[in-house]
Amino acid sequence: MDNAIRKKILSLLDQHRIMTIATLRPDGWPQATTVGYVNEGLTLYFLCGLDSQKATNLAQDDRVSLTIDHDTSDLMAITGLSMAARAQAVVDRTEAEKVLRMLPLKYPEQVSLPVPMPTPQDVRIFRITPTVISVLDYSKGFGHADLVTDL
Fold first, then answer.
1. Cβ(44)–Cβ(38) below 8 Å
2. pLDDT 10s digits, 84-142
3. Among 10, 73, 119, 136, which is least packed, fewest CB within 10 Å?
4. Which sequence ranges are marked TM in the entry (predicted)?
C-alpha cells in the first residue's frame, strides 16, 4: 500500500468515532447498524451486547461491510472510508482489556458515564480486519474513490 494512502486512511480513522457496519442475518438480509469504534492502525474494534443481532449474525458469517464518514453541506467535500472486512470475536482477555482501555481515549470530552464501564464479560468485542478499503475523496472529483486491496 502506498504510504500516502495509508496516512489518509489512518487520518480518517483517527478523525471519526462511529461507523455503520453491515452484517448478514441468517435469512440473508443485510443488517446495518451504527456503532462506536476504536482502532489500532488498520485494525478496528467495536463492542456490542452479548446476545445482540450483530453478535448472532457474526457467529454465522464473519463478513462485514462498513462505512466511516461525516455529514457535510459541501457535496465536493465528502470524504470517508468504505471497507469489506472480516470480524472476529476477541477471546483473549488481555486484548479485550486493552480495547476497553482505548475506548475512553476516543471520547476525551466524556467526563463520566451514566453507567459503569463494561468488562470483557459484559460485552462482545469484535476485531475487524479489512480486506478491501475504498477511500472516498470527492475533492478529487465527484464520486472519486481510491481502491486499496494490498493490505
1. yes
2. 999 999 999 999 999 999 988 888 777 676 777 788 888 999 999 999 999 998 889 89
3. 73
4. none
